C-alpha cells in the first residue's frame, strides 16, 4: 500500500507541475507593435515591419515620415520583437542600424528607456511606431493604435 501511495503522490505532483507550467505560459505577454493615431495604416505583416524596423522604409504609404522608437537591446520586448516578428536576431538588426548610421546613408531608430517612455513618445510623435511587451487590454489610450502583434 505504501508503494501505491508514493506513486500517487508523485503523479499528483507531476500533474500539479504541468498545470503550473501551463498557467505561466498562458500569462506570458506578447509583443505588440503600436503607432500614433495619425498613422493611417492599421495592419502590417512581418515583411513590412522588418522594412520599417530595419529603417529601409522611412515613410508611410500616405507620405508621412516614420519615426521608429525601440527599447534597449537587452530588453525582453526587443528580443521578442526581433525573433518573433522580424524573424531576425537582435545583433542582426543592430548591425543594420550601425551600418546606416556610420555610413551616413540613414539613421538608427530612437532608443527609449522603458515601455512607459515608449508609449509617451508614440502618443506625442505623429507617424511614430514602436512596440511594447503587453496584452491587448493594456492599451486604452486613444492616442495609440495597435498595428501588429506576435
Explain the overall architecture.
By secondary structure, the chain is an alpha/beta fold. The chain has one domain (29-149): D-Maltodextrin-Binding Protein, domain 2. Helix content is 45%, strand content 17%. The protein has 5 helices and 5 strands, in the order H-E-H-E-H-H-E-H-E-E. Strands 3-2-4-1-5 form a 5-stranded mixed β-sheet, sandwiched between helices. The chain is globular. The N and C termini lie far apart (50 Å). 23% of the residues are buried. Residues 11-17 and 21-26 have low confidence and may be disordered.
List the helices and strands and how they pair.
Layout lengths: L1 H26 L2 E7 L9 H8 L13 E4 L5 H10 L4 H14 L6 E2 L3 H10 L3 E7 L9 E6 L1
* CATH topology-level fold name: D-Maltodextrin-Binding Protein, domain 2
Secondary structure: helix percent: 40-55%
Number of helices: 5
Query: What order do the strands of the largest sheet run in, or round the barrel if closed?
Result: 3-2-4-1-5
Question: Please, what is the average pLDDT?
Answer: 82
CATH superfamily: Periplasmic binding protein-like II
Task: Specify the CATH architecture.
Answer: 3-Layer(aba) Sandwich
Structural class, from secondary structure content? alpha/beta
Please write the string of helix (H) and strand (E) elements.
HEHEHHEHEE
DSSP, total strands: 5
Instruction: Specify the CATH class.
Output: Alpha Beta
State the major sheet: 5 strands, mixed
pLDDT below 50 for ≥5 consecutive residues: which ranges? 11-17, 21-26
The tally of structural domains comes to: 1
Amino acid at each position: 500500500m505504501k508503494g501505491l501511495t508514493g506513486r500517487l503522490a508523485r503523479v499528483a505532483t507531476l500533474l500539479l507541475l504541468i498545470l503550473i507550467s501551463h498557467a505561466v505560459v498562458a500569462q506570458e505577454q506578447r509583443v505588440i507593435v503600436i503607432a500614433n493615431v495619425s498613422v493611417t495604416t492599421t495592419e502590417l505583416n512581418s515583411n513590412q515591419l522588418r522594412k520599417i524596423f530595419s529603417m529601409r522604409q522611412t515613410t508611410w504609404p500616405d507620405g508621412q515620415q516614420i519615426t521608429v522608437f525601440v527599447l534597449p537591446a537587452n530588453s525582453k520586448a526587443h528580443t521578442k520583437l526581433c525573433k518573433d516578428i522580424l524573424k531576425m536576431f537582435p545583433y542582426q538588426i543592430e548591425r543594420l542600424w550601425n551600418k546606416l548610421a556610420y555610413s551616413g546613408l540613414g539613421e538608427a531608430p530612437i532608443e527609449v528607456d522603458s515601455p512607459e517612455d515608449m508609449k509617451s513618445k508614440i502618443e506625442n510623435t505623429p507617424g511614430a511606431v514602436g512596440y511594447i511587451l503587453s496584452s491587448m487590454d493594456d492599451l486604452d489610450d486613444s492616442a495609440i493604435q495597435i498595428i501588429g502583434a506576435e
